[in-house]
Amino acid sequence: MIRQAKGKTPRRLPPKKASNSQKDPVGVYCRVRPLGAEDEECCIEVISNTTIQLHAPDGLKANRNGEFKETQYSFKKVFGIKTTQGELFEDVAKPLVEDIIHCKNGLLFTYGVTGSGKTHTMTGSPGQGGLLPRSLDMIFNSIGPYQAKRYVFKPDDKNGMEVQNQVDALLDRQKRDSQTTVPKTPTTRRIDPEFADMISPEEACKADGVDEDSSYSVFVSYIEIYNNYIYDLLEETPIDPIKPKPPQSKILREDQNHNMYVAGCTEVEVKSTEEAFEVFWRGQKKRRIANTQLNRESSRSHSVFIIKLAQAPLDADGDNVLQDKNQVNVSQLCLVDLAGSERTSRTRAEGSRLREAGNINQSLMTLRTCIEVLRENQMCGTNKMVPYRDSKVTHLFKNYFDGEGKVRMVVCVNPKADDYEETLLVMRFAEMTQEVEVARPVDRPICGFAAGRRQRNQAFKEELTRRLEERGGPLDGESPTVLNQLLQSFPPLPPCEISGPNDDVTLPRLIEALEKRHKIRQMMIEEYNKTANMLKSVLQEQDSNLLSKENFIQEQRGKLGEKDKMLQNQKNEIDRLEKKSKMLEYKIDILQKTTNIYEEDKRSLQHELESREQRLQREMSEKRRMEARMQGIVTDSKLKWEKECERRVNAKQLEMQNKLWVKDEKLKQLKAIVTEGKTENRQPQRPSREKDKVPAKRSASPSPVPTGPPVRPLHRRSHSAGGERWVDHKPNTNVDLDTVLQPNLPNAIKVNAPSEKALSKCDKYVLTHQEVASDGEIQTKLIKGEVFKTRGGGQAVQFTDIETLKQENPVAASRKRRSSETGPDGEPKEGDWTDVETRTQKALRLL
Ligand code: ADP
Ligand code: MG
Question: Where does the Kinesin motor domain start and stop, copy by copy (predicted)?
Fold first, then answer.
């Protein structure tokens, strides 16, 4: 909206920044025109009232190897071939007309290739008026009774509007009437049949909510942009048919509110739809002439029809427009019929026409680029500069895209197959445009006095006339009144030429006429007095009415005073409550702060607790690890020490045995000296034993000679005396294993418990011992020893060898053979033992 700036604030902020944050996408509609000829190939199908589908024409598909697919495009609304101009207007332009009446701007443009129906949609034809005539008609239908007199609003040539008083406006009107030959009342003019029936009366529509206490005026401008030059189509230049002057182009300027406008462009004030049409057709005619004269191609020019609506509130009496420029609101609706969007090659233009076409294409290209950049900025949050200034079309409408009003576009398409490729480009542009959002214009109501002044004044006038009529008819108007009748019956004076002093004819006639006139005068005076009295009484009545109204007003004032008091009390109460609420808010604030502090504390304590718990956990696990390690160390060292102790005990035992033997020997020698009296020179010798190899099923390795207990070799039984005799010791617990290989012991004394008597008769001892081997089989051990007589008269067995008899599962045995030489417990296998000492110790343990 181009609102007049206030006196002291000459420049308003750019509209974009001042406007609200609500945004609407650009409304894009699609209109499909009917095919030119029935038999033409069609490439567009309307699928729903929002979607169309494009089919590639057969020829194209074949040529391009099926490169083109069927594609669908969606719009705010799709209008099929049967859509009437009226239906299209209802949806597309009506809301924009309502907006302009409510002080909001609008931009509506048609886009498409040449022949797609842009002009048909925008302008239409007789009987099928397009969006432009319909918009004008709706505006005038809505503001008709509230229009200001001509020249009350006056454009100030800076895109603003001034208000003139009635007298100046009247003078301007008279000036214009004397200059032009245009008849005063356009309604009585002969209307060009070309635009006579654009809209049928039954299609007329009207906007709601028109402010009745405002005065309105409509101004129209019509420009053409060709080859990036702006031409004013309404400029009145005398046409020289012999040497026509080329039209002068106009420039764009920015007004104090940063709105773009065409400087020096003619703005024609129009008072009716017909007059506006007349102006429009004037422009069209000029356009046609210029195109023919300058050999232009009309499809390459953009035409812009601007409807400006000035509105200002009425004064307190409701009679005249308020003489305050700042109260004037100007809103505008731009109706743009863009040039054909097709590429240059299609038009087969040449030379300068081609260059021009290039420029026109350039302006549509700029429009596309601007839309692209706007979309990118909005979608990606970028802040790229929109190149509005690159073409006149985009520069002129820059404000709309920056949020100065609603933007709508009607995409016109011709479904014929020839247009397919161009239509595809049009669709892509349309789709992209839909994604651009434009800030919603804010509502700015016109501030004025109390509403209804115009109506009240009208009502008063009507009431007065009615009453006067009641009492003898109105004083004015064309209807015959008493006074008029009297005036009409006023007798004309007869010829006053007196022929002589005795003229008896003229004088009496004159006297009679004068007397009659006198009588009528008297009657007129009476009538006048009567009317005056009546008026007086009416006025008195009005006075008394006024008085009673004044009384009523007084009464109302009294009530108002009371209400004021009440209001004051309530205000005080509100103040008190406000203070209280402030206090409470303050308290809440403090409590909130305290809560925050506590919460902060709680959080930090919790944090600390967590970290401590973590530390504790870590320490605990460390401790457990340590414990396990220590336990391991303890078991290791215990085992080591146990072994060491055992080794030391054994060594000590051996040492003690040797000592004992030496002592024993000494004692024996001493005894021999004492009892027998003869000295034996034999030195005691430690018994040396031969290795006694007994054949065994399993290997029994020979062992080194261990230090055995002291024996007397003298008491050894001679082998030749009767062979070796064995004590065959087999405990009762033994199990019969059916062992094939059995020890061959002739003359053996079999015992199941060690017996001293048997030992005294034999010199060899064998113990058959059974135990469970590591592989779970029972193994039999033959523990062999030699029997010696001890010096004390007893027997001692010195173990010398162990034979092991073992049965094996053949499968397990083969597996075992493959395994290592060591047993499962890490000790050497029994058959591999080489250390006799160890074997002996084992045998001792077994006994
Ligand atoms: P453009 O302005 O896009 O070049 P026009 O509006 O001049 O196209 O249309 C070309 C022709 O097609 C005109 O004769 C017009 O009457 C016709 N036409 C276009 N749209 C329609 C429609 N919706 N219904 C009937 N005729 C149409
Ligand atoms: Mg056209």
Answer: 25-436
Annotated binding residues for ATP: 112-119
400: Cα within 13 Å, side-chain hemisphere: 28
Pick from 208, 20, 205, 199: which is nearest to 101 by CA? 208
The number of the ligand 1 atom at minimal distance from the alpha carbon of 81 is 23
Distance CA 612, CA 606 (A): 10
> Is the distance from the beta carbon of residue 116 to the nearest atom of ligand 1 less than 6 Å?
yes
* Ligand number nearest to the C-alpha of 111: 1
Dist. CA 571–CA 580, nearest whole Å: 14
Which tens digit of pLDDT belongs to each residue from 353-410?
A: 455 555 546 888 899 999 999 889 888 888 889 999 999 999 999 988 887 788 999 9
Phi-psi region of 21 (alpha: psi -120 to 50; beta: other; left: phi over 0): alpha
Q: Per the structure block, which two tokens stand in for 775?
A: 């592989």
* Parallel, antiparallel or unpaired: strands 27-32 and 405-413: parallel
- Give phi and psi for 718, each to the nearest 5: -75, 140
Do residues 263 and 251 touch, judged by C-beta distance below 8 A? Answer: yes
Q: What phi, psi does 779 have (nearest 5°)?
A: -120, 145
Q: How distant is the alpha carbon of residue 498 from its chain centre?
A: 107
Strands 51-54 and 71-74: antiparallel
Dist. CA 207–CA 99, nearest whole Å: 9
Q: Is 253 helix (H, G, I), strand (E, B) or coil?
A: strand
Taking the C-alpha atoms of 169, 172, 177 and 183 in order, what is their torsion angle to the nearest 10 degrees? -40
Cβ atoms within 10 A of the Cβ of 174, count?
11
Flag the least confident range among 311-315, 409-413, 571-575, 699-703: 699-703
Longest dimension (CA), the chain: 243
Would you say the CB of residue 33 lies under 6 angstroms from ligand 1? yes
Nearest alpha-carbon partner for 321 in 309, 332, 310, 333: 310
- List the single range of 178-187, 262-271, 412-421, 525-534 with lowest mean pLDDT: 178-187
Task: Give the burial class of 384: count Cβ atoms within 10 A of its Cβ; 0-12 exposed, 13-18 middle, 19 or more buried.
Answer: exposed
Q: Is the CB of 378 under 6 A from ligand 1?
A: no
